[in-house]
Write a structure and sequence with these properties.
Layout lengths: L2 E6 L5 E7 L6 E6 L10 H10 L5 E5 L17 H15 L4 E7 L1 H12 L1 H7 E7 L15 H19 L8 H15 L6 H13 L2 H6 L1 H6 L3 H4 L7 E6 L7 H10 L4 E5 L6 H4 L1 H23 L4
Parallel strand pairs: 3-4, 3-5, 5-6, 6-7, 7-8
Antiparallel strand pairs: 1-2, 2-4
Helix pairs in contact: 1-13, 2-3, 3-4, 6-7
InterPro entries: AB_hydrolase, AB_hydrolase_1, AB_hydrolase_fold, Epox_hydrolase-like
Protein name: Alpha/beta hydrolase
GO molecular function: hydrolase activity; peroxidase activity
Length: 308
């Protein structure tokens, strides 16, 4: 069973963190979930990591501010910049030594980029590998919801207007009855050709635990972020990027631009999959994650082996 830890941030927001593996492990994998989700998104990766490598590895997942079991926050801190700062605090608190492999889905991937941008020294000293799952470095540049440009513009306008209203609703959470009614829309937006009923229930449950302030408040920051220049400075790191070809939120051009900025990136496009690749295509995500992790472990062993 994972150890449950509370990390208190400088502004008194409390983060719910779950940790498995030894504290003295040489490598820690940090899993960062997407917007309106929580750490449970990674349950199929947590199971795979336990059996994937022979060496002890520490695994950390946590609920971002305003999400899951973490506490709500002041509206001005509902930004990707703040999430990047939060990641630095979490690393210092629960994984203060050893190398780090950062794995981010959607907003989680954008959090990694913001951490690299805002804390370059901290990032460089610890980070040894990257995995980007269904994410973007270009805000909503490529987001067309799988629709015509005109319809996409109308949906984006409605979405951003609604987000502004929700952001002012504070720590209230979405009513369960409303989310049940919206389940077909959630399924259409987030999943591709196939969707396990248990997965849509988990996603709906996660949205129900996100505060309305976080659901609405992060939208502007997510739409505006551009960090390809930050990624271009990280070409020395082993990395992987994955995307579904039916992803309506971060379609393939998002992953392709990440791979272009990081030319050594292993790019995987999953046919028929949508935005929730960790659930829809766990084998592909697990293979990419384990591939990067093994590169990091091999590199670490090489540094420890005396020259002969």
């Amino acid at each position: 069973m994972p150890e449950q830890v509370e990390v208190r941030l400088p502004d008194d927001v409390r983060l719910h963190v779950e940790v498995t593996g030894p504290a003295d492990a040489g490598v820690t994998v940090v899993l960062l979930h997407g917007w309106t989700l929580d750490g449970r998104s990674w349950h199929r990766q947590l199971a795979a990591l336990r059996d994937a490598v022979a060496e002890p590895v520490r695994v950390v997942s946590y609920d971002a501010r305003g999400h899951g079991q973490s506490s709500c926050m002041a509206l001005p801190t509902a930004t990707l910049a703040q999430l990047g700062d939060d990641l630095a605090v979490v690393l210092d608190a629960v994984a203060p030594t050893g190398r780090i492999v950062l794995v981010g889905h959607s907003m989680g991937g954008m959090t990694i980029m913001e951490y690299a941008h805002r804390h370059p020294g901290h990032f460089a000293a610890r980070t040894a590998g990257l995995v980007f799952v269904s994410t973007t470095a270009e805000g909503h540049t490529h987001t067309a919801y799988g629709l015509s440009p005109r319809i996409a513009r109308l949906i984006r306008l409605a979405e951003t207007t609604g987000a502004g209203v929700l952001a002012r609703c504070g720590s209230w959470r979405p009513p369960h009855a409303l989310l049940r009614a919206l389940r077909p829309s959630i399924r259409w937006m987030l999943f591709g050709d196939r969707c396990d009923p248990a997965d849509i229930r988990l996603v709906t449950s996660a949205v129900a635990r996100a505060s309305l302030r976080s659901i609405g408040g992060f939208r502007a920051s997510i739409g505006a972020q551009h960090r390809l220049d930050t990624l271009a400075k990280l070409t020395h790191l082993p990395a992987a990027a994955l995307v579904g070809d039916r992803d309506r939120l971060t379609p393939p051009p998002c992953a392709e631009s990440i791979a272009a900025a990081l030319p050594a990136t292993d790019l995987t496009v999953c046919p028929g999959a949508g935005h929730m690749l960790m659930m829809e295509r766990p084998e592909a995500v697990n293979a990419a994650l384990v591939g990067v992790l093994r590169q990091v472990l091999t590199s670490a062993r090489g540094r420890l082996t005396p020259a002969g």
